[in-house]
Task: structure prediction
Amino acid sequence: MAGDRLNLHLECLVVDARDPVRLGRFWSGLLEAPVQEESEQGTRLRYPGLDDFFLDFVPVTDREPRPHRLHLDVFAGTRRDEMVQRALDAGAAHVDIGQRDVPWVVLVDPEDYAFCVMPEREPYQHTGPIGGLPLDADDIPAATEFWLAASDWVADDREEHTLRHPSGTGPLLAFTEPVEPKRGKNPMHLDLRVPPGVDDDAALAALLDLGARRLDHDWGDLPWTVLVDPGNNEFCLLRSAR
Result:
């Protein structure tokens, strides 16, 4: 950890799932994202075009219903209607969340997670199949500052309060106004990984200094640390893969 940034690796988007295999295969087919792992512990997809960012579907027995504080903007471009039909054929459904007359289509996946199928949109060029990851934050500037300092993702020059993978590809992580007050655990969250050569305890202390706080939970002993960022969203700190 050098300079003003920790450069902890933003490794994955984690999705709570009642059936991780089914949900993982739905998203694998829609995004054309290869399955990296599939077991009782969950399903991991590798994001197309990146070898260090993943979508993890993990088993849970229950979770908060919609609306959620994070959702996926699937970037279809000129193939929007084709992508919508593919999603419907794979088990998605149309949903009305009050979107009214917009150029994108709102669907829910087989476990009732809402997502948007986006038409052509300039900021989503070069992102791959997921254009954006809009994440509600109670304090947008503080959340942006925290993730810029904590993670290895960088500011996007075109969009305010938006980060992206340092390669310049992959989905945009955008901090947005909350739809409603925070309630319960987010069923989608981000994971940071301590890079090799960095002490796990030192990384945790640095995150706390940046404004994160530990989350009190009754989930038993875990091999990672559950934290809450300044935007009031949970994330996990994963130990260094030594």
